[in-house]
Design goal:
Blueprint (H helix, E strand, L loop, with lengths): L1 E4 L4 H10 L6 E4 L17 E4 L7 H9 L4 E4 L9 H7 L2 E3 L6 H17 L1 H9 L17 E5 L3 H13 L2 E5 L5 H6 L2 E2 L2 H7 L2 E4 L13 H6 L4 E5 L8 H9 L3 E6 L21 H6 L5 E3 L8 H19 L7 E2 L10
Parallel strand pairs: 1-2, 1-3, 3-4, 4-5, 6-7, 6-9, 7-8, 9-10, 10-11, 11-12
Antiparallel strand pairs: 5-13
Length: about 350
């Protein structure tokens, strides 16, 4: 099948070309993001492959459908960037990669926690400049600390398993309880209780209308004073302006983000020689207790292999008329967990 692949970097091409040896699709790579303006590039492509920051809204989907596209293959777990109702109306099939490597995201989450807590990033820069002072680098033991996990799908479960090894007290919130987490000793509580009792809150839920701005001024008011907040899920789970106010009031004592609400204009690009126009993002960077990585939690060799292999298998299933287990439907837009 002829496939137009958008938002591609050299590493995407490497893994997709290797995985395609078993499928023999005709892959055409486009570096630009997929949106209303770039959609005409996919004319006469029956399949289009998109990534997390591609804008698969109704206008984009209408252009794709009008030009012959019938399949949208997402090389991501999340599908909040797709208008599923519009896709269904246009007869477009949407497939995704639901579990490429939960270990990759979970392990990056732990890395952010340890780095932010022990100020490893700041210590690294100090030592390189010949500054061996420990002032300002004081951290805390994770042992016996209370950690709140919002969303206990596969990623949240692995985070819980790792933090259990640190000796943390684990609280969780999810519409559906995970029996593996319960066996670990995780206690499921209401969100307000999780916020008020947790020294550290980490987000692992999908972005849906119900979870949009889950962290806002009201929820921050419930936080334990000086808590740590981690988000490796979706940027819009957090209201950035409210979080900045939480940092200024010191209600939030530390913040680590791998995702950002307006990241589509920033992440995955080299903007080191440009003036970044996003004032909220630039303001976040001024805080010494904020650590940001550019949506790299998923970025491991194993995850990239799984993403490529599953994406191409999804396309092959569609091409050959087989039932695909990774089809996304309208009802999933309100699903509690990936």
């Amino acid at each position: 099948m002829k496939v137009a692949i958008f938002s591609t970097k050299s590493y995407d091409r490497q893994f997709l070309i290797t995985a395609n040896y078993d499928h023999e699709h005709e892959l055409v790579f486009f570096e630009p993001r997929l949106n209303r303006e770039t959609a005409p590039l996919a004319k006469n492509f029956p399949a289009v492959c998109g990534f997390v920051n591609d804008q698969l809204n109704a206008p984009t989907l209408e252009i794709l459908a009008a030009h012959g596209t019938r399949l949208i293959a997402l090389r991501s777990a999340g599908f909040n960037n797709v208008d599923l109702k519009a896709a269904a109306k246009l007869g477009l099939t949407i497939v995704r990669v639901p579990a490429y490597s939960p270990y990759a995201v979970a392990e990056h989450t732990i890395g952010l926690i340890l780095t932010l807590n022990r100020k490893i990033h700041r210590a690294y820069n100090r030592v390189r400049e010949g500054n061996f002072s420990l002032d300002g680098l004081l951290g805390f033991d994770l042992h016996k600390r209370t950690v709140g996990i919002v969303g206990t799908g596969k990623i949240g479960q692995i985070v819980a398993q790792i933090l259990k090894g640190f000796g943390c007290r684990l609280l969780a919130y999810d519409i559906n309880r995970n029996p593996v987490c319960e066996e670990l000793g995780v206690t499921y509580v209401e969100l307000s209780k999780l916020f008020s009792e947790s020294d550290l809150v980490t987000l692992h839920c999908p972005l849906t209308p119900q979870t949009h701005h889950l962290v806002n001024a009201d929820s921050i008011a419930q936080f334990k004073q000086g808590m740590m907040l981690i988000n490796t899920s979706r940027g819009a789970l957090i209201n950035t302006e409210a979080v900045i106010q939480g940092l200024k009031s010191q209600k939030i004592g530390a913040l680590a983000l791998d995702v950002y609400e307006q990241e589509s204009d920033l992440f995955f690009e080299d903007l080191s020689n440009e003036i970044i126009q996003d004032d909220l993002f630039e303001r976040l960077l001024t805080f010494p207790n904020v650590l940001i990585t550019a949506h790299q939690a998923f970025f491991t060799k194993e995850a990239m292999q799984n993403i490529a292999e599953t994406t191409l298998s999804n396309i092959t299933d569609y091409q050959e008329g087989r039932s695909c287990p990774n089809i996304v439907n309208v009802q999933q837009s309100i699903a509690p967990n990936p």
